[in-house]
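Quick board copy: two proteins, each given as sequence then tokens.
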Amino acid sequence: MDLLAEPKLRRPFRRRVFLIPGGEPVPPAFYRELYLRQGTAQADLAEMALALRPGRGPASWRVAGAMEAGFCDTEVELLPWADLVPGAAGQAILPALAGRLGTLWIYLATGTLLRLFRLRPVAVLAILVPPAVLSGLAALALGAGLLLAQALAALIWPPAGWLAGLLLAGVLLLRVRFPPLPFADLGLLARQRGALSPALAERMGRFRAALSEALRSECDELLVVGHSTGAALAVSLMADLLRGGLPGRRPALALLTLGQRVPLLSFLPEARQVRRDLNALAAAAELTWVDVSAREDPLCFALCDPVSVSGVAPEGQLWPLAISAALAETLSPARRRRLRGRPGLRHLQYLCAYDRPGDYDVFRVTAGPRPLAERFPGRGRIDRVSSGQGTTGAPRAEAQRPVR
């Protein structure tokens, strides 16, 4: 039966969604196609119907949803910023390695890397993989140059051999471009030790203008979704929206952070604004903030309350509500086997279909007729202070079973 064709006894629930992805260098069309493909798969597995149509531009799309005895009209708009990341289009080995080592040095020199390691070791080890890979490639390039030099030196003339080897190594190190490796966006976020770069601050201003326009629209819910590193930017955008003042008639405000990496930014010494934003949102009664992560995702800080671990939990903290995606339960064994050894796909799973859907389902959240505030009652978090940068709130040691 076509659920979308059923008669509508009342007007559909209207929602505006702003999706802030991480800094991965993918075109906006990637997320639209991902939503279409995975939404179709989820509709086949659950009692729902989704229909997509073009939005206002290449970075937006509209969704009509029928599920849970109701209807919803959603407009999704992507807020991309990956083009600002150094080497977003790929880099040669040597400049890429220099950039990664520079970023790593900032985290080491400020003591941030050790605090992050204490919080979640597997996430820090994942950060170290790209520099290790680039170092290996650099060693291979130098080794190839050395082999060529020795071969030509023995066959022709030693100076010519060494010159040829040097040229080969130089070409491999400086001219051959490789696709960006994970965590390239840390170079942008850590460049000023946690303060936003001028280019990113300007982009955030444009994002704020888009949210302010939606705040005065006729929608029922304004939902900001931050995935991966984009979760930290989503927090700052929502905090700015609240600071700017809210109109009397407005949609319900909701923030959804998925696979968040907020501590990568909030633990840095100059990330004072981000910590202020976390502190403000944690006690804001005007919104609902749900944080979804999974222990099976090695590229995020799973089930860690980003407010408390950053040392800025206010008295009477309300948010975030921590939810486990529980991939061991929501994905079939066959699906989990396909994701084994592919951490990037596991990190993207929050935006994909689940073949054993649980409480969290991105398509019900974004295209369903119920606001976020009605979906997740309970609370659970890991809120051990780890950043060393706290400004409010006393250290607490608490580890609760995540609410599902």
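And the next:
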Amino acid sequence: MDQETAHYIMRYFSSFMTDKESKAWKHWSTSFKMGENPKPVRIKLSLERGWLTEDPEILSLLKDGYDQFELNTAKRILDENGDSVFLNSCPNCGRLTRTPIAKQCRHCGNDWH
């Protein structure tokens, strides 16, 4: 699976993430938004609100970086919920469209309205 497909699955089918995967995503997202040098009070508040976690099991999902987490999670979602995941591909070039309901290809410009 390529990164584009993994991103598409994570964006449009994130409801299939497990609780741990959701917490890992929330942790990564919050960390990313805080930047490189967050203030200690902000970290404390984020931990209290559940936006960050110190759970080693959840943090281990992110140990190889976000891209690998996205690939692993998307692969699991596709393996376990393949019948519910619709990969909307262009009938002309075969590449993924921007959304599951798109009718125009962003890669080749094909329009099938």
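Board note added afterward: The chain has five helices and no strands.
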